[in-house]
């Protein structure tokens, strides 16, 4: 008689899901970082636009009144204009006399003195 032979059957196993989870997690993390960065740029008002403006024209103050409404003070050569700005129009609200010249800024402390101050501060626990 023949002895019974045992055949081993290799079961096809499902592919390992670990790399798929890692890649999905990394992609999700990158998307979250991009969205957080965009929110931060929008929140802080950082833009790549040229903020120096046209020669002789400078926005000196701005206040938001609503989602698309602002009051802006613009310095022009010999006057300051208070403008109401909406999505559809710009309206002159008032004309102010020219601003007095700004005093020269005081010199800022050098880097070494700033570092000494930071290092000498008592640490908080």
UniProtKB/TrEMBL annotation:
| PANTHER family (alphabetical) | FLAGELLAR PROTEIN FLIO (PTHR38766:SF1)
Q: Where in the cell is it found?
A: Cell membrane; Bacterial flagellum basal body
- State the InterPro entries in the record: Flagellar_biosynth_FliO, FliO/MopB
> Which family is this protein grouped under?
Belongs to the FliO/MopB family.
Asked if the record carries the keyword Transmembrane, the reply is: yes
Please give the organism. Pseudocitrobacter cyperus
Instruction: Please name the taxonomic classification of the source.
Output: Bacteria, Pseudomonadati, Pseudomonadota, Gammaproteobacteria, Enterobacterales
Enumerate the residue ranges of region (Disordered).
96-125
Alphabetically sorted, this entry's keywords are: Bacterial flagellum, Cell membrane, Cell projection, Cilium, Flagellum, Membrane, Transmembrane, Transmembrane helix
Write down what this protein is called. Answer: Flagellar protein
Taking the first listed entry, what is the main subcellular location of this protein, grouped into a coarse class?
membrane
Q: Does the keyword Membrane apply?
A: yes
Transmembrane region positions? 20-41
